[in-house]
Amino acid sequence: MRRRCRLLAALTGCLLAAVATAGEPCRIAFDMGSSGIRAGESGRSEIMRSNIDYLAPLAAGRGLAETLPSTIAALRDLPNKGGFGPDCARLGGGFSAWRMAAQEDRQQLAVDLEAIRKTSGVAVLVIPQRQEGAYGYQGAHKLLGERLTTSHILDIGGGSLQIAGERHSFGALFGQKLWHHELCKALRNATQLPCELQPMSPVEVDSARDLLRSRLRDIARDLPQGATMTAISRPVTRGVAPAVASLFNRPGSLSEISPTLLRATLETYAGLSLDDMVERLGGERSHAAYLVSDLLLVEGLMQATGSHDLQIAEIDLTNLPGLLADDRGYRWAEKHDCYLRRLRSIGVGAYSSDPATCPAGQKPSPH
């Protein structure tokens, strides 16, 4: 009798869950960043991942052509591996690397996106920086809840960075690797990533600060002065924050960093050789090579926003919640040919135009 009750309870629970989600659209989204693809389905917490380096060929001037086979394979395989619904609507959001590709040659990018859709069934849109900021704040607020006490989050990726708030955001194609690459060219005439920036003289540190100020001058236009920030990504939570804690003998992870401690940490480690720094801090040499450029970047961002202290809270933030809730994006997926025409014409701004103004008649691509 008890066994029957348990079976009935389980069946009732499944039926209730089905009723609860019956009104929600079945959607699959692909978060396509600078280092790979993450896939998720509406109503499920599982995230499937595929590592693809999009920045290297772009930085070398080769475009995205060589990444298309692995991209198409991931768009096909990740939903199957995750057991996602085969008939769900599918949308790919291309972020920093795809915006770079649009800047370089949007005509060729449109050709590449059409090929991706025809071979994988996934319509990929190039998402504007401001829209990515909205996704980021939405996702961070959902994950952090009451722990998010600042007006903005700071998310430093490989190809782009976001200072995202509920109403105002700043974004730039200027993430960890691209900033490091720029310093390598400016200070060491090197193009290989990562390069050895250290040891850096005080004059070189000041030159790097000047270069960064010129790159971040639009922050004052886009953000209110005194915006407060919570850093949520690994360049800060697993690089900058542990380095500050180690220098000032503060065990455990820091919950905040002051400008004074950050400046002292930067000037200490910049003067060391990379070997000496690795010996003091441990970790992999290839990761440690980015620390000084990360310290410079965080210092510059705090100065540009007028922040007094930087809060620290690592989370696994993706653009998937924002993409899955993006009705405009899924409308564009149904009119992808029209989107590609606008991408060729006006570039990344095509996303922000209205799909309803497209000619009727295009049918969604089969999955």
Could you characterize the architecture of this molecule?
There is one protein chain. The chain has 367 residues and is an alpha/beta fold. It is built from 16 helices and 11 strands. The chain has helices spanning 2-21, 55-59, 68-82, 96-120, 129-144, 176-188, 202-215, 219-222, 234-247, 259-270, 274-281, 285-288, 291-305, 320-324, 327-334, 336-346, and strands at residues 27-32, 36-41, 48-51, 89-94, 123-126, 152-156, 161-165, 169-172, 229-231, 256-257, 310-312. Strands 8-7-6-9-11-10 form a 6-stranded mixed sheet, sandwiched between helices. The N and C termini lie far apart (45 Å).
Report the total helices. Answer: 16
**Going across the major beta sheet, what is the strand order?**
8-7-6-9-11-10
Would you list the SSEs in sequence order as H and E? HEEEHHEHEHEEEHHHEHEHHHHEHHH
Radius of gyration: 22 Å
- Kindly, what is the distance between the CA atoms of the first and last residues, rounded to a whole number of angstroms? 45 Å
Instruction: Supply the helix-strand structural class.
Output: alpha/beta
The main sheet comes to:
6 strands, mixed
Which descriptor suits the 3D outline? Answer: globular
Secondary structure tally: strands = 11
Characterize the quaternary organization of these chains. Answer: single chain
Average predicted confidence as pLDDT? 89
Which residues form runs of ≥5 with pLDDT under 50? 1-22
Give the DSSP E fraction (strand runs of 2 or more residues).
Answer: 5-15%
- Percent range of helical residues: 40-55%
